[in-house]
Structures are given as C-alpha cells and as structure tokens.
Amino acid sequence: MCWPCATVWDPSISGNPISLAEETALIVWNSKTGEEHFIRQADFNTKLKDLGFLVPTPTLPTLAPFKDTVFKTLQDAARPVTYHRQTGYKFTLPSAPTEAGGAGAPAGSVSVVSTQLVAGYKATVLKATDSTALAGWLKANGFAMRPALDKWLAEYVKLGWYLTAFKFVGSKDDLGIRSPLVRITFQAKAPVYPYREPMDTKGEATRSLRLYVVSDVGLKAMVDGRPWLAKMEASFPLDYQTKGELAIALRKSPSSVPPNPNMSVYLDERRSRNAMGDLEFQPMKSPPTYLMPTPIQVEQDLRKPVPITVWLPLGVLGIAIVVFGVRGLWRLWHKDDHLEAQ
User: Fold this and answer.
1) Please, which of 134, 260, 306, 336 could form a disulfide with 128 given CB 3.0 to 4.6 Å?
2) Residues 129 and 161: beta-carbon distance below 8 Å
3) How far apart are CA 113 and CA 91, in angstroms?
4) pLDDT-derived band of residue 85, with 50, 70 and 90 as boundaries?
5) At a CB cut-off of 8 Å and minimum separation 6, what does 254 contact?
6) What integer pLDDT is reported at residue 14 of this predicted model?
7) Contact status, residue 13 vs residue 61, Cβ threshold 8 Å
8) What ranges do the domains of the chain cover?
9) DSSP class of residue 254?
C-alpha cells in the first residue's frame, strides 16, 4: 500500500517529508466466500495539512467506515494474562454520501469506476491499462508525483489491480496525523496485504506494523515466495463476543466473519520495504498453529493497607509482654538462690 508515499493533495506543496511512524492493520478473510476485509490505521509524521494516499487491490473494492475501537478490542483479546504475586505487608500512615464521476481520463487507459465520500475521504476507484496515463490522471487531480511512485504504479498496472485514490483534508497538530479508518472489501483467492512501497519511502527508526489476521483456516505469511520475517506474537481461536464486535464494526452480519475464526497477531519492525513485494497468506491444509501470549508475572502487594496507628499500640503491648515475661522467668530461675541467701 502506498500509504505515506507523498501523494500529497496540494500541488503547490513540494519537498515536505512524510514518514510513517506506526501502523496497525486488520485482515479478515473467509475461505468459503473468498471475501477479504482490509483495514489499516497509521500515524504520520508530517508538517502537511492535507494528505492523499493510494490503495491497490487485486479486485474491485467496496468501501465503508470502520469503528476504530475494534483495534482496542483485538489488542485486549491478544493481551497476555497477568498473574499478580503477593509480596509482604504494606504499612501506611493515617490517611457518507456518494458523488458522481471524477476527473476525466483518456479512454481505454484510465477508467474512473466510482467516486465516493467515506469517513472524511474522497475516494476514487481507478482501473488503468497504462501507468503513464494513470500517473497523469493523479497529477491532474492534485496528487504529487515522482519517479519512484511512477514505478510503483507500473507494478500494479502490470498486475491488473484496481487503485483507490484517497484524499483527506483535516485539522491536525504539527506532530502528525492519524488517518480515519475505512473498510476496504474485495474478493481474493488468498488474503493479501499491499505491502509494497515506492523505493524512496522513508520510515521512522522505530517504525512498527502490528497486523491482526482473522481467518477460518491456517495461513502461511509469504513475501516474494519466502516466509515473512515478522514475529508472530500470538495465534488463538477468537471468542464469540469479540467475533460479534468485529462483525458490527465491519457493518456486516455475524455470518460474514469466518466460522470458528482464528486470530494471528504479527509484529513487523522493518524500517524499509524497498525492493519487496506484497504480503500474501497461503492457505494450509493443516489447522492453525496456536501460540498463546506468554503469561506475565507481576510482583504486587495486594494486601489491604493497615494504618500504622493500629500496629503501634499492638507493638508496644507486645514489647511489654516480652519484657515482663523474661523478667518473670529470670526470677523463677533464681528462686532457689534467693531462698539460700535468706
């Protein structure tokens, strides 16, 4: 996905760096229907006030808003169990509508399939047979182009993919911008993640991608025919409640979420994806591999605090008992000596 790829919605702005700091994404794929839902959330570091980006898909996509709280739900579902170990005592003192059409393009080279307003974006779905004509359409419609992006477009035109051009204009502070969420739904023989980026895309030194993949079959993550080197943090069956919340967020019926779904969580901390292709998940005949999050043990004093004013009198009384007890034993021990002296 050409998410931060300087497709800037303001042709008067140039030379403004855009970098991607953090990404969270979700793929939901049903092996029975071949339907994939793709959602991506990203934090940008940029001084720009207006931003555009491109999303390639292998087949014609449909778009809809997505409830952003679901990522928090998925994060909680994958959170490791925390065990608390009690340690010692604790003393205390007292105390959207659709628009028609888009900008024109040469016949037979770029087709404007649809234009839609969704989640604060103007989204235009394009299908092109000529990458030069596609670059020309984007430039004519306000997107800043550059050689690396031209080559990136050519790869997807060659593959025959659709391209959705998003334009977002919103307020933000100088530190960056968080993109509103859009559900992108399309047909796929196997789930895909548009991982490829233009060669000049820059990532933060601490850039990270956390990817949640929900499916009813086991999947093997591959890039360019080789295993994806991201870390699998967890893989486990999704509970009924989380599945229901996911269906609501997708604005779909519960049956649209795969039956008996398994969720795998990946963490990719690769700073650059230069010269890398798209991420593909190959279905496997074997069942999903389960990898539960490693439990975390935390030492914590869970006892109810006792005010020191309660313990102080008890302590004084205890000392007195000990003193008088020792004195009594001493006198009893030396009783015979006392009688002989008399």
Assistant:
1) 134
2) no
3) 70
4) low
5) 243, 244, 247
6) 35
7) no
8) 2-299, 307-341
9) G
